[in-house]
Amino acid sequence: MSTPALRALAHVRSLGAPGRVPDAAITVNFHPDRLLADGRTVAQCLAEEGVYRSQFETRISNGGLLAYPGGDRDRWEHDMFGGVYDGVTGRPIYGALNLAGHPDGAAPRFGSCHLVLGAGVPARSTFCHGDSHLGPGIVGTADAFGAIREALIDEVTRTGVALGVPAPLSGPAAAVPAPLSGPAAAVPAPASDPAPAGPEPASGLDPAAGPAPRPDRTGWEDVLAARRASLQRCLTSPPFPPAADSPPASASRLAPLVPASPAAAPAPAPPLSALPPGRTLDDYVEAQIHGGLTLRDDVTAIVADPSFRGTPTAAHLESLGIPLHWHAGYTLAVTDVPADLRGPEVPPLARRIAARHHRPVLDAELIGRAARAAAADPHQLQLIKYLWHLLVLLGQPA
Fold first, then answer.
1. Angle at 72 between CA 67 and CA 78, to 5 degrees
2. What is the rounded distance in angstroms from the CA atom of residue 86 to the CA atom of residue 61?
3. Which residues does 174 contact at the CB level (< 8 Å), separation at least 6?
4. Is the dihedral of CA 212, 213, 218, 224 positive or negative?
5. Which end of the chain is more exposed for a tag (fewer CB within 10 A), N or C?
6. Is the pTM of this model over 0.85?
7. Domain layout of the chain by residue ranges
């Protein structure tokens, strides 16, 4: 790693608290079909260069486009990392720690597909509780993760849920609740990507049910570990169905995220698409990866939206030679796009997109077409981002 990267890690480590990061993969969500300044798509660039570049280099963003010298992202990084970075190259890559084992990645706000990073990447990453644009005071590294863990536990204690996963409830009759997989997983958009005012779906417990048992903090962490184990089983099994031109998934490429069980051989893992999506727009532990990100060395799997099957985007992803899996996807009928979550301009936009392409149901690929067509119109691009948020929150499996 470069000297700035080592200094950034040391700076954040000094602000953290003792404690090891759990065995969880970092995921990097991205939209593979968005256009770069040179006219290539993100997937094409990954296939040709084999390197995932920061917003400072690509000049595109699935949040706020603020990464340029003197911009907001530059200022945030200066504050977070002790002023060690300048210029455009060598900046950290942003992802999220998939503690909850979400099959659509830890932060689907930023893309329909995601890279699953190898077990060695967290050691050269920094973390924060929430999004870095908020100037978080709770930060850490792989060996100084204690404050972030305590913040998550505190969130569970106060609200009964964190990272989109409810805590089991204490008491003899309490049962482990199902993970949130619908609108209840939503939280307000961050200030770097502001959404029009409007009610967000509630995430609390039903007050009509009477006093609730206390959330079981230890049980919540056990639920997360079990979810990560289920996800890992899917990722270390061959893709279902195998991509036509992809090599079979190799367990040797994927370092285990949980200890191997000495018990008898488990039943074959279900396809990744059988796992319900997490839909966590903002409830995540952000990860900042220092020292660059090369696909050959750092990525163990790619998880894509099924709407890209059979497209040039899928061909580019398959050409990387990395196991390619498909999550359940999101589809949303145009008639189901609400006006109260992301503003009244979004439903008419959805209808125009559907009419233009003669498709009454939205998916990631169709929204990508609209984003490419609106590449020179910042306002339209912002509305398309809001439409993507609604697809994540409300969409049904493909």
1. 90
2. 19
3. 168, 213, 216
4. negative
5. N
6. no
7. 3-329, 330-398
